[in-house]
Amino acid sequence: MSTLYLIPSPLGDAPLCRMMPPYNSDIIRSLRHFIVENVRTARRFLKQVDNGIDIDSLTFYELNRHTDRQMIASYLTPMSEGCEIGIISEAGCPAVADPGADVVAIAQEKGYKVVPLVGPSSILMSLMASGFNGQSFAFVGYLPIDRNERAQRLKALERRAYSEDQTQIFIETPYRNVQLFGEMLRTLQPQTRLCIALSITTEGESIRTMTVSQWKKAAVPDMHKQPCIFLIYK
After folding, report:
1. Ramachandran area for residue 11 (φ above 0: left; ψ -120 to 50: alpha; else beta)
2. pTM of the entire predicted model
3. Which DSSP symbol is given to 112?
4. HEC string for 1-33
């Protein structure tokens, strides 16, 4: 049976040996078809895995916000011919807050084997380091852009953290990180704990948990245009 491999990629500039087991490299070398968010980034990643890979002999299918959703199913055509395919996200784990989920859904419907490979997940790594509840948590993706809607959503997530004893995890477009941070300080209760996880796995990594009232007295983290995970808990 043909296999769809979900291949995690680096979150930052850390060496591949820190986050990718040799088994992943062996799988990658065996593949000739890849579904990727950005071909240029994927080619660079594959060269980091093994400089001997003949990039020009590979076939890439680009899957991002510009992709015609009617075309996605056709990306799996090689699997019907016995070939295996790898999905590579821009950063971290494919199909988690990532368009690769659409491909995985189709592969499952068609009965293909889907194999997630071991690799870095900023969501889980931030949860591990936050000190929050790791037995009950929810990743809710992006919050609304509209300021009023975002404030309402933050309050709803905070209530859920208290009523369900559940960690709430979310992200933002990097250039809006500071704006969201300010909104949280204005909206959340002073005693609510907030974890800011910045640039995980890179030299600039910073994961800090404090109450909202403590954050108000602290220096604003340098989060502008930095990959960031936000977590709140009671």
Report:
1. alpha
2. 0.89
3. -
4. CCEEEEECECCCCCCHHHCCCHHHHHHHHHCCE
- Token readout for 127 is 């949860």
Distance in angstroms (rounded) separating the CA atoms of residues 54 and 46 = 9
Per-residue pLDDT of 8-47, as tens digits, reads 998 877 778 778 889 999 999 999 999 999 899 999 999 9
What residue type is assigned to position 83 of the chain? C
Q: What are phi and psi of 123, to 5 degrees?
A: -65, -50
Cβ–Cβ under 8 Å, residues 229 and 194: no
Q: Which residues are registered as beta bridge partners of 167?
A: 137
Complete DSSP assignment for 137-186: EEEEEEPPSSHHHHHHHHHHHHHHHHHS--EEEEE--GGGHHHHHHHHHH
What's the rounded Cα separation, in Å, for the pair 220 and 178? 8
pLDDT in tens, 191-215: 999 999 999 998 889 999 999 999 9
